[in-house]
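Weekly puzzle thread! Below is a chain. First person to post its structure in token form gets bragging rights.
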Amino acid sequence: MLALVPLLPMVTATTDLAGRAGSTASPAPTLPVVRYDRSCERTAATELALDECAAFELHQVQGQLEAALAAQSRARGQAQRHLDAAAQSGFLAYERAECLASAWPEKGGSIYPMVLEDCQLRLSVQRLQELRVDGAGMTGPP
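Winning reply:
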């Protein structure tokens, strides 16, 4: 309980700055919705079926992510494409490390593939949302 007390003034100050009249802070952009077919989750009755659902959902989102990256690449100059490629390579390294660490407690268990793919799905959705926001020129406040 005592550890929370020092944080309260900082949270209040941040809230006050955003709500102050005449503030130059603009609201954060709304993230685009990433749609994919999740209907198999409702009918999957076994661990194997759930694993297949997770793989199917991940495949759908990764396809959208690849399309967004290709569109971004077409719209950029050569120098920016190299930076985009480096950013995507960094994202893939992060995704792999994060998801392996996240699924580690389930290593060797039947749920491991689903936990791993759910993590990859979550991070791929976030990455796709970021690309769509950046592509629309809605990067938010500096």
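Puzzle host: Confirmed. Bonus trivia for everyone else. The two ends are 34 Å apart (CA to CA).
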